[in-house]
Amino acid sequence: MSAKAAMKQAKELLTAGDFRGALKCCNRAINADKDNYLAHVIAGKCQDEIGDKAAAERMYDAAVAKDPAQLPAWQGKAKLYEQMGEERADKLAEAYKRLADHHLSKENDLTKYMVVAEKLWKLREKSGNLESAAEVIAEQMAACAERSDRHKERECRSELIRLLAQRQDDLSAGLLDTLRTNLETAVSASGADQSIQNMENFKTLIKLYYKLREMEELQVSNSHTMRMYVRICQNIFCSL
């Protein structure tokens, strides 16, 4: 049986849910054409569905080795590693990074990029790697700004502030500076907005200035900021 005929049958069996049958066809295709990318990808999916995670990983790795630029193997690896938990966290991060980069640079699809990038930074957050998580969110913000999507840019900034603000005592000097810069941007952009979020940002910023002993920053020097300060300071300081 030719590789083409074997793959046609493999796809039909895969659609029908016959994973073992589809796997046999993929193996025939690989025997006929060892460089058949799709045969390795579908074989990996079949192995995953059957429950042989190690064999699935080998098939996906072989597909990536043949053509690292294509997405299907990386998508398969991501799904596989999501099931395998912490033991494959670093490899899952690599798969997310590959997918995110492709969505942004090759497809210019901001929506797909944002979904995968969010998975990546949350994975890094869960593992305690705040530097990496913050870096991914900063890249999201830059991508949104480049495409003039101010709403998503603000959402990313809010996530970055949340991520760092709740761990101030554990932050490096670089991350403290990142937190301060983004708080200042958020507060400045919100003006006299008295929303709960803006007041929380203002409160966190003041606490951060105090923590950094940058008391001169607490001196409100222009009239616009003074008006904002007067309006909301009572709400802020009562909860400090």
**First-residue to last-residue Cα separation:** 75 Å
Weakly predicted, low-confidence segments? 220-226
Rounded Rg: 25 Å
Structural class: mainly alpha
Helical residue percent band? over 70%
Order of helices and strands: HHHHHHHHHHHH
Mind describing the biggest β-sheet?
A: none
Q: At CATH's second level, what is the architecture of the largest domain?
A: Alpha Horseshoe
Structural summary, described in words:
Helix 3 (37-50) packs antiparallel against helix 4 and helix 11 packs across helix 12 (223-237). The protein has 240 residues and is an all-alpha fold. It folds into 3 domains: 1-79, Tetratricopeptide repeat domain (Serine Threonine Protein Phosphatase 5, Tetratricopeptide repeat); 88-163, Alpha Horseshoe (Serine Threonine Protein Phosphatase 5, Tetratricopeptide repeat), CATH 1.25.40; 172-240, no CATH class. Helices cover 78% and strands 0% of the residues. The chain has helices at residues 3-15, 19-32, 37-50, 53-66, 72-84, 89-106, 110-126, 130-146, 150-165, 173-190, 196-212, 223-237. It contains 12 helices and no strands. Mean pLDDT is 88; it is low at 220-226.
